[in-house]
Amino acid sequence: MVDITAQMVKELRQETGAGVLDCKQALEACDGDFGQAVTYLREKGMAAAAKRATREATEGLIGTYVHAGNRVAALVEVNCETDFVANTDQFRELAHDLAMQVVAAKPQYLTVEDVPASLLEEEKQVYRAQMKDSGKPEEILDRIVEGKLGKFYEEICLMEQPFIKDTAITVRELVQQHNALLGENIVVRRFARFEIGG
């Protein structure tokens, strides 16, 4: 059994933002393996976040971002469970980053569920028309269409877009990370993007 030092706990805490006791437990559970402890905490945080998802998020704030030149701006409503969390620097930064995302990435819808069925049908027909003469079997075409729809969602749905400050994660994953970090259910409710002449 590896001796868990205060320095190990401190480093894990800096890496993950988890509490001291959680970090100590993770290191003990993973026999001092730093990488495994990080994964352990992430999984624990995501599991806790899933439980919190059913709790009511009625507090929060409006994140704003006005791009240099004052020609493009965005507002994003981000909700949480308490005004205490709404007033933390991490929550404010999240709301600001989401507004910046809306300005930069120009999403049209919040989630996949918000995309009108008629628009999806149009997209599917376009993809099928593009592959009409490919000679591929129907089930292969279906999979290609699904793959193209995934890319389509990444372009038009805010929650599916790669996060502009770290494209390795989606906006949905960014929100889930904050959910785990802040210990509350965090919900992106709606957004608006404004552009001069747009």
Please tell me about this protein's structure.
The chain has 198 residues and is α+β, with helices and mostly antiparallel strands. It has three domains: 6-52, Ubiquitin-associated (UBA) domain (Helicase, Ruva Protein, domain 3), CATH 1.10.8; 59-110 and 157-195, Tetrahydropterin Synthase, Chain A; 116-156, GTP Cyclohydrolase I, Chain A, domain 1 (Orthogonal Bundle), CATH 1.10.286. The chain contains eight helices and five strands. It has helices at residues 6-16, 20-29, 34-52, 83-86, 89-105, 117-130, 138-156, 171-182; strands at residues 59-66, 72-80, 162-163, 166-170, 187-195. A three-stranded antiparallel β-sheet has the order 1-2-5. The chain has a two-stranded antiparallel ribbon with strand order 3-4. Strand 3 (162-163) and strand 4 (166-170) form a beta hairpin. Helix 2 crosses helix 3 (34-52), helix 3 (34-52) packs across helix 8 and helix 5 (89-105) packs antiparallel against helix 8. The longest helix is centred in the first third of the chain and has 19 residues, at 34-52. It starts with 5 loop residues before the first helix and ends with a strand.
